[in-house]
Design brief:
There is one protein chain. With 239 residues, the protein is of the alpha+beta class. The protein folds into 2 domains: 38-87, GTP Cyclohydrolase I, Chain A, domain 1 (Orthogonal Bundle); 97-233, GTP cyclohydrolase I, C-terminal domain/NADPH-dependent 7-cyano-7-deazaguanine reductase, N-terminal domain (GTP Cyclohydrolase I, domain 2, 2-Layer Sandwich), CATH 3.30.1130. Helix content is 38%, strand content 22%. It is built from 9 helices and 9 strands. It has helices at residues 16-22, 41-58, 66-69, 71-83, 143-154, 160-175, 189-192, 215-226, 233-238; strands spanning 7-9, 12-14, 97-99, 107-119, 125-135, 139-141, 157-158, 180-188, 203-208. It has a 5-stranded mixed β-sheet with strand order 7-4-5-8-9. Strands 1-2 form a two-stranded antiparallel sheet. A hairpin with a 2-residue loop joins β1 and β2 (12-14). α2 crosses α4 and α5 packs antiparallel against α6 (160-175). The termini are far apart. It binds zinc ion (ZN). Zinc ion (ZN) is lined by residues 23, 119, 121-122, 188, 190.
């Protein structure tokens, strides 16, 4: 049997199991193989379908059952085309920038962006909300694009710290500014549905760049997050 790999962190030796259960990130970029895109999406789906069928068979499931027969194919399609589609740079949203013609100089905050991701240590869902702010450096980005950038990086096997940093890095690059802030608040199903089975805890991560490192800007951003927001148009129109 292979001995678990050891990692150094804060003078402690961590095993693969520790890394999984404590959700420790080992790098900012998603660890990818050099041959990650040698196969086409169709080839990947065919391969994943075969492997997932093996997993189900190994667990003793009867795949001649009508309900289970199509599951390996469905899972393969869902992995490649939906929940892990953010692994492939070809799915990265293309972003057009606009000139900040109205000279808006304050922060723009887009809050409560709901996302679904998956924990890379257990492959079960992370469900959360991302709150994103930036101050224009001359150009502005379409609001839906901020949402799409969050979704793109969420659709990978993730750890929350890396998701936060990857969104921040991307926005800084696109907008040509360091004035970007992000708060992510998420529930990890690997913490609630298994392991310590804590259904109440949530995990918060944050990034504050440029002028958001100053207390006043950071506090202004955080105050906006506490403003109650209407969740749907009907609610707003009725109020
Ligand atoms: Zn996990």
């Amino acid at each position: 049997m292979l001995k678990p790999k050891k990692y150094f962190s804060n003078h402690l030796l961590l095993t693969d199991d520790d890394i999984g259960d404590d959700h420790i990130m080992t790098s900012l970029s998603t660890p990818m193989r050099s041959d990650a895109f040698d196969l086409t999406d169709e080839e990947k789906m065919a391969k994943i379908e075969d492997h997932f069928r093996e997993i189900m068979l190994t667990m003793g499931l009867d795949l001649t059952d009508d309900s289970l027969r199509g599951t390996p194919k469905r899972v393969a399609k869902m992995y490649v085309q939906e929940i892990f589609s953010g692994l492939n740079p070809k799915n990265k949203p293309t972003v057009a920038l606009f000139e900040n013609k109205y000279g808006y100089a304050e922060m723009l905050v887009e809050k409560d962006i709901t996302f679904y991701s998956n924990c890379e240590h257990h492959f079960v869902p992370i469900i959360g909300k991302a709150h994103v702010a930036y101050i224009s450096n001359g150009s502005v980005i379409g609001l839906s694009k901020i949402n799409r950038i969050v979704q793109y990086f969420a659709k990978r096997p993730q750890v929350q710290e890396r998701l936060t940093m990857q969104i921040a890095q991307e926005l800084c690059e696109i907008l040509g500014t360091d004035d970007v802030a992000i708060v992510i608040d998420a529930h990890h199903l690997c913490v609630s549905s298994r392991g310590v089975q804590d259904v109440n805890s949530s995990t918060i991560t944050a990034y504050y760049g440029g002028s958001f490192m100053k207390e006043a800007k950071k506090n202004e951003f955080l105050q906006y997050l506490h403003l109650s927001s209407k969740t749907n148009v009907t609610e707003v129109l009725q109020s």
